[in-house]
């Protein structure tokens, strides 16, 4: 296994936790992004307003995607938990082996 594979394997669970937090506290995180963007804009005296706005917008978009992924994976986990052992989920070969 390569270095990147090891890193991805170790960071995978953290992405899920971050997604859960983004889903639960997205509104507060967005408020924090807005507040940080305003503070930086004031410190730079508006010189980089466009870039700051673009960066804040991209951060909010990423937050939304992370939250949405978390929501979708939560739904799939819930539907997976409701399956009984032996239920067919539509993947893999069907019927008896020949």
Care to describe what's here?
The chain is mainly alpha-helical and 98 residues long. The chain has a domain at 16-71. 76% of the residues lie in helices and 0% in strands. It has two helices and no strands. It has helices at 3-43, 49-81. The longest helix is centred in the first third of the chain and has 41 residues, at 3-43. The radius of gyration is 21 Å and the shape is flat.
Radius of gyration: 21 Å
Give the strand content: under 5%
Biggest sheet record: none
Q: SSE order, as H and E?
A: HH
Overall average residue pLDDT: 79
How far apart the termini lie comes to: 35 Å
Strand pairing plus helix content: what structural class?
A: mainly alpha
Give the structure's gist in a few sentences.
The protein has helices at residues 3-43, 49-81.
Write the layout of secondary structure elements.
Blueprint: H1 3-43, H2 49-81
Highlighted features:
98 residues; mainly alpha
